């Protein structure tokens, strides 16, 4: 395995210099990426030194190094996890055959579509978050935002590498198109719903990192099982970066919950807005919104697309190789919720077409573990309040529940009840205006906005007043 060569214009561990055609394609794309980064990347901080981690090797020990970098000079590059000797395709019709090093012709279109869909989310999230730097609650959070942003940029590089290396001219065209679509743009939107929503404030950002990046974890883990080995190796390395994004989300929301509880105790009131905090009922509304948007990212409950991806050996289940079954799923069944007239029911569906729902199950269980940890914080302050995940049929736009109104506790309701109640369940304009009113930048070393508690520890064990971003 080649080490990462940082003397190259494009750092990589895939011996890029030995493939002149690919090198030229990527060197042609690089300035376009930088132009996009300048236009659509973090606004206002491009010339600042930011304390960032950069990948130096892909093995488990010490893949990251920390240092000050100006974001446009970040060493974006191409890093694949170590190859597994004699890796086989572990599921579907090609089970047992050697993993593909090149794209199998019959799956070219499908594989390209999967890679493009994955790739499209990465620049989209950077676009969604580009204004947040101006209202950061602390230098620590500002640095974390930028770390997430540069790594999403690198994830885009990862998908562009696959497109350019394996899909010829079509791949190069797709790589360009990834820089042309824009989050929320009416004429050229990003592909998936959640990536066209706004991330207007830091509460939304932390929720996004918790819920939407977690979809990333589960989708990447499924693609890491792929029989197309370059995709598998790329996703395996991306997963190590994704873990930090979810940490930013979970700890960010946890710190806001903690601050709310502190204010409740200090002032013996539930109305922490009076004291500059974000109250727990508002947090619940944001959870309802971000969870439901992210649940849509798993696609329809019953999906022939998902069945085809699996049968072809392109996209597996979460932890496919740890499961003890035939890995073909031709005969099995799986419980899937759906609609029966006015009722939500569970049916046994063929396992193959239920793969989106199965992945959603894994995802929901993981989200619930995070919510439990937030509830532990609440409990430790002696506060009587429980945050919950909304029912998975709540406010869905994709799949069996797209056409019905469902309450957060899972009752099918009338349009009239929805109209009367939805303001109790989802952030209202007033809630958003209140949260927005708290978004005042705090950029003094070691200082923290009043609506969020300080982190338990600094990045890379740095002191509380560490200058994570040099603003002067
Ligand atoms: N919005 O059978 P269906 C991340 C489309 S996040 C709009 O229901 P399928 C990250 C679907 O494309 C991870 N359209 O679903 C996080 C299809 O359209 P076509 C991103 C949607 O195909 C934070 C049609 O509806 N990675 O990394 O089984 C920051 C019927 O499809 C949506 C991936 O998603 C939606 N929500 O599964 C940064 C992995 N849902 O093809 C990054 C790659 C469905 O008929 N993608 N549709 O025109 C996939 O595996 C699949 O495309 C999906 C959908 C799971 C998304």
Keywords:
472 residues; mainly alpha; 3-stranded antiparallel sheet; two-stranded antiparallel sheet; 11 helices; binds benzoyl coenzyme A
Protein model, in words:
By secondary structure, the chain is mainly alpha-helical. It has helices spanning 20-40, 108-128, 139-166, 168-180, 202-223, 229-266, 280-295, 304-311, 355-380, 415-425, 429-438; strands at residues 49-55, 64-70, 333-340, 343-350, 405-406, 412-413, 469-470. The chain has a three-stranded antiparallel sheet. Strands 3-4 form a two-stranded antiparallel ribbon. The protein has a two-stranded antiparallel ribbon with strand order 5-6. Helix 5 crosses helix 9 (355-380). The site of benzoyl coenzyme A has 25 residues, from helix 2, helix 5 and helix 8.
Q: Helix count?
A: 11
Radius of gyration: 23 Å
Strand fraction band? 5-15%
- Which hetero ligands occur in this complex? benzoyl coenzyme A
Which residues sit in consecutive blocks of at least 5 with pLDDT less than 50?
none
Give the SSE map.
Blueprint: H1 20-40, E1 49-55, E2 64-70, H2 108-128, H3 139-166, H4 168-180, H5 202-223, H6 229-266, H7 280-295, H8 304-311, E3 333-340, E4 343-350, H9 355-380, E5 405-406, E6 412-413, H10 415-425, H11 429-438, E7 469-470
Antiparallel strand pairs: 1-2, 1-7, 3-4, 5-6
Bound molecules: benzoyl coenzyme A.
Benzoyl coenzyme A binds at residues 114, 117-118, 121-122, 125, 152, 192-193, 212-213, 215-216, 219, 296-300, 303, 305-306, 315, 356, 398.
């Amino acid at each position: 395995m080649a080490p990462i060569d940082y003397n190259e214009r494009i750092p990589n561990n895939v011996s890029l210099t030995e493939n002149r055609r690919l090198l030229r394609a990527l060197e042609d794309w690089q300035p376009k990426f930088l132009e996009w980064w300048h236009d659509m990347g973090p606004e206002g901080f491009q010339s600042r030194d930011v304390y960032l981690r950069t990948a130096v090797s892909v093995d488990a020990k010490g893949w990251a190094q920390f240092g000050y970098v100006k974001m446009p000079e970040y060493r974006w590059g191409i890093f694949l996890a170590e190859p597994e000797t004699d890796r086989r395709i572990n599921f579907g019709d090609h089970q047992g055959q050697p993993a593909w090093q090149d794209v199998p012709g019959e799956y070219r279109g499908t594989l390209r579509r999967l890679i493009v869909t994955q790739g499209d989310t990465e620049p989209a999230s950077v676009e969604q978050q580009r204004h947040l730097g101006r209202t950061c609650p602390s230098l620590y959070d500002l640095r974390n935002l930028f770390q997430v942003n540069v790594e999403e940029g690198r994830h885009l590089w990862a998908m562009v590498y696959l497109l350019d290396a394996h899909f010829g001219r079509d791949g190069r065209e797709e790589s360009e198109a990834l820089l042309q679509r824009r989050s929320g743009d009416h004429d050229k939107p990003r592909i998936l719903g959640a990536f066209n929503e706004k991330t207007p404030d830091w509460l939304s950002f932390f929720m996004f990192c918790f819920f939407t990046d977690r979809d990333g974890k589960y989708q990447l883990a499924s693609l890491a099982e792929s029989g197309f080995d370059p995709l598998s190796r790329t996703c395996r390395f991306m997963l190590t970066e994704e873990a930090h994004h979810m940490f930013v989300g979970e700890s960010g929301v946890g710190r806001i919950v903690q601050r709310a509880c502190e204010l409740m105790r200090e002032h013996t009131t539930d109305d922490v807005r009076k004291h500059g905090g974000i109250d727990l009922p508002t947090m619940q509304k944001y959870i309802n919104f971000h969870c439901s948007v992210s649940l849509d990212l798993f696609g329809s409950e019953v999906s022939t697309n998902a069945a085809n991806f699996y049968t072809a050996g392109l996209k597996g289940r979460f932890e496919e190789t740890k499961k003890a079954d035939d890995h073909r799923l031709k005969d099995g069944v799986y419980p899937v919720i759906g609609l029966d007239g006015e009722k939500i029911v569970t049916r046994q569906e063929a396992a193959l077409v239920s793969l989106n729902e199965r992945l959603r199950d894994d995802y929901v269980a993981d989200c619930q573990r995070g919510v439990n940890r937030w509830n532990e914080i609440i409990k430790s302050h002696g506060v009587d309040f429980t945050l919950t995940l909304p029912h998975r049929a709540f406010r869905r736009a994709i799949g069996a529940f797209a056409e019905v109104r469902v309450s957060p506790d899972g009752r099918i309701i009338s349009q009239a009840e929805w109209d009367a109640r939805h303001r109790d369940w989802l952030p209202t304009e007033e809630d958003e205006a209140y949260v927005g009113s708290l978004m005042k930048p705090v950029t003094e070393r070691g200082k923290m906005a009043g609506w969020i508690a300080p982190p338990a520890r600094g990045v890379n064990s740095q002191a509380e007043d560490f200058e994570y971003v040099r603003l002067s």
